[in-house]
Amino acid sequence: MSGRRLPPLGSLRAFEAAARLHSFKRAAEELSVTPTAISHQIRALEAQIGVRLFERQTRRVAMTAEAALLYPVLRDGFDAFAEAIAAITARRQRRALTLSATLSFTAKWLVPRVASFRAAYPDLDLRLHASDDPVDLHGGIADAAIRYGRGPYPGLVAERLIENRFAPLCSPRLGLRRPEDLRAQSLLHSEWRHPTEDTPTWQAWCARAGLAGLDVEAGLRFTDESHAIQAAIAGHGVALLSLALVADDLAAGTLVQPFGPALDGYPHWFVRPDTPPSTEVLALRDWLRSEAAVEGASAG
Among the listed ranges 87-101, 218-232, 235-249, 268-282, which one has the minimum average pLDDT value? Predict the structure, then answer.
């Protein structure tokens, strides 16, 4: 709709306040003006629309029939204005930050814990950026990240968050009891994007366990570690997995560690730019530390 011909907003506000409070004086106090100013605004409004709006009485004013028609429309309109402005203001005041982590760490460790973060920091919005490619934390994509590796990370502040150990894990339905039982099972492999001599592999595990003659190259292969985890839960074979990453599955009994040994892996680090951190980043770090400590206590 175009070409609206409306009275000045000041006159409408004066009328709505006077009608609601039944008093020019109280309307003036609410709007921080004088009663005379309210009276002038009302008279100007009456002159513009050509009707009388109030019957002036001792110490109060009463609405005319015409005013009674106009008042609820203005009241609801001003209420809607106030609600919209409050919503916009609250939205601007909310704080947000982005945490980047690998696909599997996001799915298996972070997502199950986001309710804890929301409870601890209800005014802070957390965005999870899941990617197996490390993001440039100086480029604005994320405020902080979880990295798995040996470290150090040049240009970043890195704090050890979670220690990792890798062991054979499978569904309890498979009924494994000893390493020799692996000969009758399918091995599940997670393909590491950047393997090193310390990467936990079935070959390294067999050497540690003293299990010879097992075809460590056979079995199902997954480019996404979380898919290997789901395959193990479904009973499709035995996977060499991080005990920390599947702690919830172990606690729930959907995965079991039938035997050892466990191989040491690299830690998960909390990393952030080497610039003074915001209060939001520090809050995120403290929450991650707390969650990691709870998990460590449970594992112990």
Answer: 87-101
Contacts by 1-7, CB closer than 8 A, 24 or more apart: 7/44, 7/45, 7/48, 7/49
Sign of the CA dihedral with 138 first, then 140, 144, and 150 last: negative
Beta bridge partners of 146: 270
CA distance 237 to 219: 8
Crossing angle (nearest 10°) for helices 9-21 and 35-49: 110
Q: Which two tokens stand for residue 178?
A: 């000893």
Which contiguous run of DSSP H or E holds residue 223? none
Chain mean position to CA 208: 40
Q: Which residue has the tokens 């950047």?
A: 194
pLDDT, tens digit (0-9, with 9 covering 90-100), for 250-268: 999 999 999 999 999 999 9
pLDDT tens by residue, 39-66: 999 999 999 999 999 988 777 889 999 9
- Relative to beta strand 220-222, strand 95-101 is unpaired
CB < 8 Å & 24+ apart, contacts of 250-256: 250/169, 251/298, 253/172, 254/171, 254/172, 255/169, 255/170, 255/171, 255/172, 255/229, 256/169, 256/170, 256/171, 256/172
Whole-prediction pTM: 0.68
State the chain's maximal CA–CA distance in angstroms.
Answer: 105
Kindly state the tokens that stand for 58.
């001792």
Question: Going by C-beta distance under 8 Å and a sequence separation of 6 or more, which residues neighbour residue 48?
Answer: 7, 11
**Rounded distance between C-alpha atoms, residue 200 and residue 195, angstroms:** 9
Strand partners, 165: 264
